[in-house]
Structure formats: C-alpha cells, structure tokens
Amino acid sequence: MSDDGETDRKRPNILVTGTPGVGKTSTASLIAETLGLKHVNVGDLIREHKFHDGRDDALDTYILDEDKLLDFMEGALQECADDGRGVVADYHSCELFPERWFDLILVLRAETTVLYDRLTARGYNEKKRSENLEAEIMQVVLDEAKESYDAEIVQELPSNTVEDMESNVERCRQWVEQWNANNS
C-alpha cells in the first residue's frame, strides 16, 4: 500500500468500529460474507498471535502491543490487496490504524439500554460495563474516528436491532458498488 493515500487495491478495505457490544463482529462478518471480503477480527488476532503485554486485570482486558499488531496487519492487508481481496476489519478502537489502510470507517452506535443488556449478557463486571457505557454516551469512538480519518469516509450507523444490522450491510453493499465503479 502506498504512503501517499493512493490505493493500488482492487477491492476496498472497511473498518467497523464502536464501543464493545455494539455489534461490530456480527456486522463485519455479515458484510464480509455478503460482499466477498475477508473478515479480520482484530481482537482475535491480538489473542491468537499474542500481540499483547499481558492483562489488565482491573479492566479484564489485554494490554495491546500496537507495534506487533500493526506490523502483522500491514503484511496481511498487503497480501489481501495483492490477491485482489478487500478486507472488513473490526475493532473497538480506530485511531491506531493508519488512515491509508481503510476506505470506509463504520462507527456503530447502540442505545445505552441495548448496550447494557448486551454487556451484561457477556458477563462484563460492573467497572468494565460502566466504562463502556460511559464511552458510548460520550461518543468516544465516534470522536476518535472523526479525529483520525477524513470526515467523508466516517459513517455513524445505529446498531440496536437485527434490522439495523441488515440495513447497515445493505448501505455498505451500495457503497462498495460505488467504490468499485469509481476505482475500476
């Protein structure tokens, strides 16, 4: 991938981001399946390849080693580009990824009552659940995306119901069709 913002990709790369529990992985996997893109769950990469420096027990999460993760992802994204494949990545943060990697940033948002129920069902402790709910209320991930990427590629989408997810996948399908037409 070139550093000048120009892409040599034949298919787009999409980042699905948002507070934990908003439906990133479900949405990203459905987008990938529907559009024939490769799904990359960044959280799974971190765990599988041990791109972390241990755990933060208080927050019940891994301490990310950004350099290891980004080095690996750079190669994986280039390999997909070389194979003519686009990628749909999902992760709860976005500011660590270089802008040149992604053509579309989808920031999923959920109502706090919906998010509370999802996080509770996951077994999140009170501290972790409260921090994530506060992050959603304060739109931390959305602000991070707007600060890190060109405004025209950042899209805020509701993710409260299965119908929202289906609508988001359809919107993404239409966007990819347009991207393909503009970049063929």
Whole-number average pLDDT? 93
* Quaternary structure of the protein: single chain
Overall shape: globular
Class based on secondary structure composition and strand pairing:
alpha/beta
In spatial order, strands of the major sheet run 2-5-1-6-7
Q: Rounded to an integer, what's the Rg over CA atoms?
A: 16 Å
Stretches where pLDDT is under 50 for at least 5 consecutive residues are 1-5
Structure characteristics:
7 strands, single chain, five-stranded parallel beta sheet, globular, 184 residues, alpha/beta
Structure commentary:
This protein is of the alpha/beta class and 184 residues long. Helix content is 48%, strand content 18%. The protein contains seven helices and seven strands, in the order βαβαββαββαααβα. It has helices spanning 24-35, 42-48, 66-82, 112-121, 126-137, 140-148, 162-182, and strands spanning 13-17, 38-41, 52-56, 61-64, 87-91, 104-109, 154-158. It is globular and about 50 Å long. The model is unreliable at 1-5 (pLDDT under 50).
Write the layout of secondary structure elements.
Layout (H helix, E strand, L loop, with lengths): L12 E5 L6 H12 L2 E4 H7 L3 E5 L4 E4 L1 H17 L4 E5 L12 E6 L2 H10 L4 H12 L2 H9 L5 E5 L3 H21 L2
Parallel strand pairs: 1-5, 1-6, 2-5, 6-7
Antiparallel strand pairs: 3-4
Helix pairs in contact: 1-7, 4-5
